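Co-fold these.
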Amino acid sequence: MLLQTRKLTKVFGTLTACDAIDFSIRSGEIHALLGENGAGKSTLVKMLFGSLQPTSGQIVWQNSPVTVASPAAARKLGLGMVFQHFSLFDALTAAENITLALDERAPVADIGEKARALSVQYGLPVDPNAVVGDLSVGERQRIEIVRCLLQDPSLIILDEPTSVLTPQEADRLFETLFRLRDEGRSILYISHRLDEVRRICDAATILRHGKVVGHCQPDRETPGTLARMMVGDTVAQITRAPHAATGETPAILVSRLSQPPVGPFSTALHDVSLTVQRGEVVGIAGVAGNGQGELFDALSGEQRQSLADTVQLSGKPAGLLGVSARRRLGAAFVPEERLGHGAAPQMTLTENLLLSRHATDGSAFIRKGGVIARDMIGRAAARISAAMDVRKGAEDPPAAALSGGNLQKFLIGRELDRQPAVLIVNQPTWGVDAGAAARIRQALIDLARNGSGVLVISQDLDELFEISDRIAVIHDGALSAAMPVAEATAERIGLLMAGAAAAPGNAGVAA
Amino acid sequence: MIRIEVTRRPQPSRLLSAFSPLIALGLTIIAGSIMFMALGKNPVAALYSYFVEPLTEVWSLHELAIKAAPLILIAVGLSVCYRANVWNIGAEGQFTFGAIFGSALPVLLPGFQGPLVLPLMLLCGVVGGMAWAFIPAVLKVRFGTNEILTSLMLVYVAGLFLDWLVRGPWRSPEGFNFPETIRFHEDAVLPAIWFASGRAHWGFVFAIVAAVAVWFLLERTLKGFEIRMMGQSPRAARFAGFSSGKVVFFALLLSGGLAGLAGISEVSGAIGQLRPVISPGYGFAAIIVAFLGRLNPLGIIAAGLVLALSYLGGEAAQISLGISDKAARVFQGLLLFFVLASDTLIHYRVRLMRTVKAGGGDA
Amino acid sequence: MLEAILLTIATAATPLLLAAIGELVAERSGVLNLGVEGMMIMGAVAAFAVAYTTGNPWLGALAGALAGVSFSLLFGLLTLTLATNQVASGLALTILGLGASGMLGESFVGLPGVKLEAVSIPVLSDLPLVGRLLFGQDPFFYLSILLGIGVWWFLFRSRAGLELRSVGANHASAHALGLKVIRVRYLAVMFGGLCAGLAGAQLTLVYTPQWVENMSAGRGWIALALVVFASWRPGRIVVGAYLFGAVSIGQLHAQALGIGLPSQLLSALPYLATIAVLVLISRDRRATLMNTPASLGQPFVPDR
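Predicted complex below.
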């Protein structure tokens, strides 16, 4: 055995994030760690990598018990980690980023050269002098992998690696992983994508609510049996009635929207055009960091346009309007970042209800002289919580006290409660458990079928195939034409996500 | 080795958010006693003359109200700024400019008298404070210039401007060359609230009214909601359709106006003329008041009285025990330190840990 | 005449340079310490008191440095260990420093100080033109220049400097990599305190060897502005400090010449110049955002 855990437990206050976890990884295997958001996967991995100390239990490395006091100690043992978030420094170069994670004391330039050589060897091209903030998500991931490989690890931990890749890029990553396995290294592969796990993993451990609920050999299971082990229940199937195209004014009409980059590391938008009819759900696919956030801000009015007709909502020019005025035209918005964008973390749910509704529901929620009608808002918040089945510990807790799934249900419910004619939502189910995700997706479809136009920006292709009537792809701030979902295949969308249409002949390798 | 470890509470503690100012006061008193002992003074006697003696006589209660009025007025304005995450630390300058603008009328037009004079002076004072606060506001909104540094630099400029006025163009011709303006005529003096008992003037009433009004604004109105959200979560506030520029202007102009009102009230009610120095650092002490009141205008009323007491106590202790009046400022600084440290208890659990292995110094 | 003016400019620029270079290191690690003025004035009073009592200005300088460091530790305890608001805590440090120095220095007002004399470097100081200017100065001058160069080398050429920058750029990532975020920040804050304390010591041991209450007169705040002006780059701090030194000496000479402007207006020039410079530098918001350490002012509490 390369690595074993014995009754590994981590308690945060009253929450047991990991409860007596037993599992083991053999040398030369790709081992999947499966589980929903909040199942305890990342807590477990942080303990293995020394970022968190277990409350009790033991880690056994190559048959001897060890204490992993810090990430440096983990690296010394031979563990490497490719993080999903929070691990590269935007303001530093690739070589500086790599140097920081290595324990050897060598000049940055030398380490950069070594990284370049190694990256060529494994087919993961990396430019050591590039500033990381300017790179695509795929390129950042390559830096992380190269950084990890430079330490010659025997166990590599990958946290949701394909969530930021096109299907083609993912295939190339799998080849690299097979090669690493053939060299005798082990890989701990964290994912919730079942088909992927079945394709590449030799063994799997399934977590639910902080406990191990099963071990299996993924290729002997079906996605259905794996999902049941993960969720512990059958997830409601989404129903989608065919939509009848309406010939009236479109809900959303975007024509030739261009915009320079707003911040130091943000993406410019190039000539984006898009129509969303009433009654349909249009999906926008794309790899993270290709302008999704910028497009959302442009549509919501947080960034205004210079021409009124660039963005039309329900047939009315909205380009010059701010977010409140666009809401008054019947539009509603749900951003990607829940805490700090869609909701103010320390404010209560009722206050957060007022956040997006004070302009449209002023007559109900605001009394004379600008005094807030707290009783009315409280009633509306209770109505939303009931409609969306929002689970909360107190009557009116701060937004930050809710789990991701429950907060997202509240934020979507906050907008649905208005019966908006237009709904624009970015990453509706990111980090949300399966039950809540199904509920949210069904609500989006139902809203469209009741005559509203719904635009869903998502990095989850499966989700888009499940709910969209048409799908467009955003790459480097440019949007492809939307195609009916029946004509869209994962391969076709994947090529567009890699920029095939924008830069023919350069598929897969974003420069 | 013992080290301090903090972990975030799932929710802020209500109990501690009520008690943290008291904990801070207690810690300050302990630290102050140690300081007095180090100075060779009896700490009990010193604390008595600081915190009890000024409360034993009617005239000194009046003095307390006189000192508390500017502190509360300024701190109430600052609480709006700080809740909006706008760091106005130049209230001392806005106070000075309010005093200058408001004094222009009685100094330059001493012949103009009547019941209109005082309201006009107060209005000018508010405008003067606003004008001085407008500069950091416009620089922040228009160019993104850091308001901490600009508002502070303007304190020095305002002080020098006042110095120039009272030594130059506004100097009293009958003042034997003293750097001061003529004394205000009777109609330009803010009257006492209750003549019979002492000299506390209407500034204290302004302070209480301002505190209650601003409390209502912050806690009950959409404008207050806008200010609080901009301070806590600017991105969410923009998503709510609020404009950060408008909030910056609102907060700075409101606090500038209140500081200006404090300035003219002080000059008109307590001093009666302009001098090179018109404030014992009210603009900075009000920062302490704002935090001790937990940025809540009602709490600020109590906090303003506590700080005013430390000024009076400083004078009393100097007279009765010969302790330097500078000790009051040390007290005030310590108090702010302990207030901030105690606020940690609201959001975090703080534990003392015995480190098992030496060298694991990272908290 | 020109040489004399240049010498006084260097003397006026040195405390600004010292304090700003220390604050730059603290801010590069992600800590905004608005208490520079407080640490500086404590350094000034400690240096004066010890130099006066012992008659040894070198011991005074050491005391100034220690006072700055101990004050910065107080700030570290609040903002780093107790995760308090850095802006408010920095203000507290300044208020406390101004109060405590006033009290401690009360008995020293009006006493003659001990001057730390210039140290001429043999041979080099006899060079024509630049000799006295570069090699015939007081020890603080040499130290400030060496620190400017040293900090540049440390930040951009050493591994420890890279770690410090990474902590300031993103403390969560740095923590995930296993860097000791809090420890790095403590060290950076202490370095800032050391430099501010030395800057204060320069005021009472070289610039005007006497003790006057509030004698730092906003220099700590100007040093903070210099860090912004310099976009967190050591080379530009040197340039900025000397520009401000020139402005403050220029206005003194203008007052002495009696050019007809009120002296108060001339005294206000350094503060007005600070505002002007801040406006100029902040006009390019995108560049400012690029250079600002991304975690600046954010409290850090790791998960456990």
